[in-house]
Amino acid sequence: MLDAKTIEIIKSTVPVLEVHGQTITKKFYETMFKNHPELLNVFNHANQRQGKQSTALANAVYAAAAHIDRLEEILPVVKGIAQKHRALGILPEQYPIVGENLLAAIKMVLGDAATDEIIEAWGKAYGVIADVFISVEAGMYQEAEQQPGGWRGFRRFIVERKVKESNVITSFYLKPEDGNEIASYLPGQYITVRVKPEGQSFTHLRHYSLSTSPGHAYYRISVKREEAMADRPAGIVSTYLHDDVHEGDFLELSSPAGEFILDQSGELPVVLISGGVGLTPMVSMLETLLEQQPSREVVYIHAARNGSQHAMKEHISQLTQDHPALRSYLVYEAPAAGESCDKTGFIDLPWLQSVTDSNADFYFCGPTPFMQAVNRALKEWGVPENRIHFEFFGPADSLD
C-alpha cells in the first residue's frame, strides 16, 4: 500500500502528465530500446514508428496516476493490457527494466521539475502498479497452461490450409504440430503469431483475431495484407504471411487471449458491425450465436471498400439463407460497376435506425475512423454504454 504523502505527490503530477505524457513515453521507449535492444523481439515496431504504443502507454500512465488511490477502478484496463502481455510472453523480471527507464524518461523530460521527492514517489507507485500486473498475469499464465489443450509460451502449428478470401485478406488454418488437443477460446479472442522473416534482426509478434467459432481441431486467422502507404511502410508480418508462408509451413503461436468477447448470457438481439478486416472477430461471434443460440435475433452489417476487398461474402450469404434469425447487410464505400450492396458510402445513424433497433447489444470492429463513426452514431441514438462493445487492432486508442 502507498502512504498518503506518496499518493498526494502522484496525484499532483496528473496535470503534468496530461501535457507531457506522450513526450515522456516516447523518450521512455527510445531509452529502453537503446539500453535493452533484446526487447525489440517483443514490441511491435510499426506501432512504435507510428506513435501508437507511446500514446497507449501515456494514457495508461495517466489513468494509473489519476486512480492511484483506487486502482481497482482501472482493473478492466489492467486486465486488457495483461491479456496482451501474457500473449506476448512478458515476464516479471522485465518490469524492473520498464520502471527504471520510465523514471529516467520522466527525469529527462521534466528536468528540474522532477524533484527527488517526485521521482521517489513515482518509484513507489510504479512498484505497486507493477505488482498488480504481475499478479494478474501470473493467474493468466496459469489458466492458459492448465486448461484442456493449453500451453505456456509458444507452440508450433502447421499451416494446414491457406485460403484467399479477397484481394487483400487470406485465411490460415492452423493445426498443432504435436497432434494434441488445442485450447478452446471465447468468440472475439485472438492468438499471437511469432515469426522471424528472412533479413529481419528481431522476431516479430502480432495478435490476430480468431475468425471462426470455437470447437474445431484447428485455429483460423484471416490476415489483411498491409500494403505500404504514404504514412507507413508495408506490414512486415502480414506481407510475410501472405508471400512466404505456405501450406505445410510452421508458425509459432501463444494460446488464445483477449477481453473483447461475446456475452452469451443475455437474450437481447445482437448487432455485429465490421469494417474491412474487422470482420474477423465478428464472424467468430456470428457463427457462435447461430450454433449456440439459433433463435436469438442477429443483425450483421459489414462495410468494405468494394466487393474485391470483401472477405467471406459467400459464407455470410449462406449463413443468412440458412438461419431465419439472421439478417445481413452490405455497405460498399465505392462499389465497382455492377456490384450490388444495401448501402453505398458509409454507415450513418439514419440508415442504422432503418435496419436495426436500439434495444440490442452492439459489437463493432474495424479501422479507428470507422469505429469512431459507429460509436458516435450509437451514442447519439441513446444506446447505453454497457451495450456498446468494441475492439481496437493494436494499442488502445480513443473513440472520442
From TrEMBL:
Globin domain sequence ranges: 1-138
Region spans: Reductase: 149-400
Stretch forming the signal peptide: none
Swiss-Prot/TrEMBL site (Involved in heme-bound ligand stabilization and O-O bond activation) positions: 29
Cofactor(s) needed: heme b; FAD
InterPro entries documented for this protein: Cbr1-like_FAD-bd_dom, FAD-bd_FR_type, Flavoprot_Pyr_Nucl_cyt_Rdtase, FNR_nucleotide-bd, Globin, Globin-like_sf, Globin/Proto, Hmp
Residues where heme b binds: 85
Positions of the FAD-binding FR-type domain: 152-263
Enzyme active site: 95, 137
Sites marked Influences the redox potential of the prosthetic heme and FAD groups: 84, 391
Keywords: Detoxification, FAD, Flavoprotein, Heme, Iron, Metal-binding, NAD, NADP, Oxidoreductase, Oxygen transport, Transport
Reactions catalysed according to its record: 2 nitric oxide + NADH + 2 O2 = 2 nitrate + NAD(+) + H(+); 2 nitric oxide + NADPH + 2 O2 = 2 nitrate + NADP(+) + H(+)
Enzyme kind, highest EC tier: oxidoreductase
Record-listed NADP(+) binding positions: 276-281
Cofactor binding note of this UniProt entry: Binds 1 heme b (iron(II)-protoporphyrin IX) group per subunit. Binds 1 FAD per subunit.
Positions of FAD binding: 190, 392-395
Entry EC number(s): 1.14.12.17
PANTHER family documented for this protein: FLAVOHEMOPROTEIN
Record's function text: Is involved in NO detoxification in an aerobic process, termed nitric oxide dioxygenase (NOD) reaction that utilizes O(2) and NAD(P)H to convert NO to nitrate, which protects the bacterium from various noxious nitrogen compounds. Therefore, plays a central role in the inducible response to nitrosative stress.
Family listed: Belongs to the globin family. Two-domain flavohemoproteins subfamily.
Domain notes: Consists of two distinct domains; an N-terminal heme-containing oxygen-binding domain and a C-terminal reductase domain with binding sites for FAD and NAD(P)H.
Protein name: Flavohemoprotein
Protein's organism: Paenibacillus motobuensis
